Amino acid sequence: MVDALQFADGNFHCPVNLYPAAGEGTHTLVVLPALGVAARKYDGLAQRLMAAGYNILVADWPGQGESQPRPNRRFDYGYRQLVTEFVPKLLDLAGQHFPSSVPVLLGHSLGGHIATLHAAAHPDRPVPVIGVACGNIHYRHWDGLGKLLTPSAALAFTLITAVLGYLPGRRLGFGGQEARSLMQDWGRVAFSGQYRHLGLTLASAAQNRVDSLYIQMEGDHFAPPASTLGLAALIQARPHIERLPSPRPPEENPHSAWLKAPQSVVDCIDGWLRRDSRLSEESAGAA
Q: Is pLDDT of 282 > 70?
């Protein structure tokens, strides 16, 4: 099944793939992709989660995959618009198609950033968060030369987007054709580790009662353990982090290679959702 939503005053048309479970489906997992990764890349993950009894929505980010148009100097957006408009529209769509199930945000990399920020910005409407291979990209979360790579990339991307009005990620080997404001937001987090520049009111972790699970892939140099902890701590005073070995050969980057063999991630998510029955009760009571 396919639906769609309009984003940024109708400037972007964003297809949404729906995977209804065979039964009612106690939860609806809203999958938020990594930077530049098309929704179709999550089909294997969605099929396995659907077989486990969950409804799934997978949306292309605006201007990625099947979504049009591509970002450029005219068609732009940043983190704030994704948090305040795009994700709420996805949750509304989930409610329309699967009204009796509990929505859960499942974010990979950039998707984990946005899901976490949504939870921090909406403490009065807690939507459970699952983050996979994601983290706060502040350079201090890396060791050695890794401390230089992220800020160096951030500086380069900021300069490129200022000149072109977008990031030609495919040519650079990083993401897709990305929006200028999105990459500038990304860069500011890399330097500061903070999200104050977004102008969002974020609840403190001590005041946030959202349930969350973060999955860190061993050997993931794009989201090392300190980075994952740094993001999870935004909404949880005592974050729940599971560390999984990469299901693929060591020469493949665990950050995204797990999508080729997602069963261990599916099992982790399924075990957490079934073990923590409070997700259904608390989310239903807050709706």
A: no
**The model's pTM:** 0.93
| 213 secondary structure, DSSP code | E
Q: Tell me which residue has tokens 């892939």.
A: 217
Better-predicted residue by pLDDT, 174 or 280: 174
Backbone φ and ψ for 245, nearest 5 degrees, come out as -70, 150
pLDDT over threshold 70, residue 283:
no
Model pLDDT for residues 59-100, shown as the tens digit of each residue: 999 999 999 999 999 999 999 999 999 999 999 999 999 999
Cα–Cα distances (Å) from 257 to 2, 14, 17, 244, 252, in that order, read 26, 25, 22, 13, 6
Distance of CA 275 to the CA centre of its chain: 23
157 touches 183 (CB < 8 A): yes
Kindly report the backbone phi and psi dihedral angles of residue 105, in degrees, each rounded to the nearest multiple of 5, phi listed first: -90, 125
* Residue reference for tokens 């990339």: 153
Report the distance separating Cα 259 and Cα 275, nearest Å: 24
Distances (CA, A) of 53 to 3, 58, 66, 103: 21, 16, 27, 14
- Distance between CA atoms of residues 36 and 272, nearest Å: 28
Distance (Å, rounded) from C-alpha 283 to C-alpha 126? Answer: 6
Domains of the chain: 2-138+200-286 (3.40.50.1820)
φ/ψ (deg, to 5) at 262: -85, 5
CB 133 within 8 A of CB 222: yes
Contacts 24+ apart (CB under 8 A), 265-269: 265/45, 265/132, 265/215, 266/45, 266/48, 266/49, 266/52, 268/213, 268/215, 268/242, 268/244, 269/29, 269/49, 269/106, 269/130, 269/213, 269/215
